[in-house]
Amino acid sequence: MSKNKKDIKEDLQDKAVKDQVEDVIDEAIEEVENDKEGKDAKGETPELTEEEQLKEDLQKEKDKFLRLFAEFENYKRRTSKERLELFKTANQEVMTAMLPVLDDFDRALNELHKSGDENLIHGVELIHNKLKETLKSKGLEAVEVKEGDAFDSEIHEAITQIPAPKDKLKGKIVDVVEQGYKLGERIIRYPKVVTGK
Q: Cross-referenced HAMAP family, in alphabetical order (predicted)?
């Protein structure tokens, strides 16, 4: 089938419009590229005096230097902060491994107090205190918790809840089952507590 003259004329007009649109787009792209390269509308680079060119180059180098310097300062600050954090918690594994030994000493002392042998109690207390002081000198601290303190889920670990023996202990700590410890500002073992309801 052959196309009639009207269809052919419309196709030619559409093609002409498409060509014009493509030409306008090409010119716009060329203008943007020339602007990026510092060329004027005729496609020529504007002439800069040697002094202006040197000033422009110097400004670019200053900008690069300032960015590099700022990046280096951020790097130094970040690594020194990480190093301090590492030093504070470097002993964490050793301290965590020593906590059960400390708990055993506490239990042994409680049982010895029940037996009443003063010489044995005194000897074990000396060893216990020496161990606690050594660990304390390395940054280990007990988390202070006692009966009647308010329960805080950020600091305490509730293992059970029992009816409060007194009304004032409702919602508060009734008993401390296991002592908690922190190394520096970081809690390495949360105190295990019983709360009242």
A: GrpE
